[in-house]
Design a protein that fits this description.
The protein has 105 residues and is an alpha+beta fold. Helices cover 30% and strands 39% of the residues. The strands form three sheets. The chain has a three-stranded antiparallel beta sheet.
Length: 105
């Protein structure tokens, strides 16, 4: 499975390919935790904190340097079979990578 997403570089449109066998991990210095005051999971990072929805939380839990993007998608599709998640997962990984929260290893 290769998923293509257009990325704008300011001058022309480029395409980035996310391969199902690419392993992904959170960047050091970033931590996922439950925040009681928010009643939600948050991502803590050196510049601040962001409150996460269920999908983002489930993806980041699996960004431990041992799971591939394909494994994350398969696992979450199995866990939530009634929801179409593939595009949402890929979009989140793309945003998280562009913000420096996760990286391919």
């Amino acid at each position: 499975m290769n998923v293509l997403h257009p990325v704008w570089d300011g001058e022309r449109t480029m395409t980035k390919v996310y391969l199902s066998h690419a392993i992904i991990q959170m960047v050091p210095g970033h931590r996922l935790q439950w925040e009681e005051a928010e009643q939600a999971h948050v991502l803590l990072y050196p510049e601040g904190m962001i409150t996460l929805d269920l999908c983002a939380t489930e993806v980041l839990r699996r960004c431990d340097g041992t799971h591939t993007i394909g494994e994350i998608i398969t696992d979450l599709k199995t866990r939530y079979p009634h929801i179409e998640l593939e595009t949402t997962i890929i979009d989140f990984i793309q945003r998280a990578e562009s913000k420096g929260w996760v990286r391919m290893v």
